[in-house]
Amino acid sequence: MARFHVIIPAAGNGSRMGAEAPKQYLNLHGKTLIQHVIKVFDQSTKINTIHVLLNQEDAHWRSTYLHSSSKLQVHYCGGDTRANTVLNGLIAIENQVEADDWILVHDAARPGLSNRLLNHLLSMLENDDVGGLLAMPLADTLKRADSEQRVSATIPRNDLWQAQTPQMFRYATLKKALIAFGGSPTDEAEAIEALGLKPKLVIGELQNLKVTYPQDLAVLSALLSSS
């Protein structure tokens, strides 16, 4: 029977936040963002292992109190890109997993994932032939800008979704997709798509947003306070 393993790439420096520490170590309601992330997977009875992937120069993990978990393993295998980091992580755990085990890749700075949403994703995808990801249908009108930041086109939003994480695929398929991809995919689903497969979209939640800019942290704090 296939098992479930979580990979949390946390090797980035979060430069767009303009903070002293990488964004996964910023505080939200008394815990670091990555603590919130680890906790939700630790609480799930279906999740077997959790793997945090760090940059070799990471100076914050050991000096920050983090939620301990018997499921948790840390790997100092960060790469130049997210895709490289995830691939390095897959290689690091290859002796612990089977080819058809499920891998859930989740952003270290996406702490709003709820237990309910995680369980929904697992139930929707565990018998799927391909796997898939959480995503939100776009509600806003999209504009394409020119070099002078003026509107050059309006893009129809019909059938457009904003990708979230976790993104969930079989170990062997995801590893093959990342190795075969020409360049650096923006997410795991893009690499899977390049194999000719069609990941399933599972509706996510607004609070499952990725903290990228300073205002995101304030928005997320408010959303979690009201939930």
Features:
227 residues; alpha/beta; Spore Coat Polysaccharide Biosynthesis Protein SpsA, Chain A; two-stranded antiparallel sheet; 6 helices; 11 strands; globular
Q: In angstroms, what is the radius of gyration? A: 17 Å
Order of helices and strands: EEEHEEHEHEEEEHHEH
Q: Write the CATH homologous superfamily.
A: Spore Coat Polysaccharide Biosynthesis Protein SpsA, Chain A
Overall outline: globular
Number of domains: 1
Kindly report how far apart the N and C termini lie.
35 Å
Strand order of the largest sheet: 5-4-1-6-10-7-11
Q: How would you portray this structure in words?
A:
The protein is an alpha/beta fold and 227 residues long. It has one domain (4-226): Spore Coat Polysaccharide Biosynthesis Protein SpsA, Chain A, CATH 3.90.550.10. Helices cover 27% and strands 25% of the residues. The chain has helices spanning 33-42, 82-92, 115-125, 171-180, 188-194, 214-226; strands spanning 4-10, 27-28, 31-32, 47-54, 72-75, 102-105, 131-137, 142-145, 151-155, 161-170, 200-203. It has a 7-stranded mixed β-sheet, sandwiched between helices. Strands 2-3 form a two-stranded antiparallel ribbon. The protein has a two-stranded antiparallel ribbon with strand order 8-9. Helix 2 crosses helix 4. The longest helix has 13 residues, at 214-226.
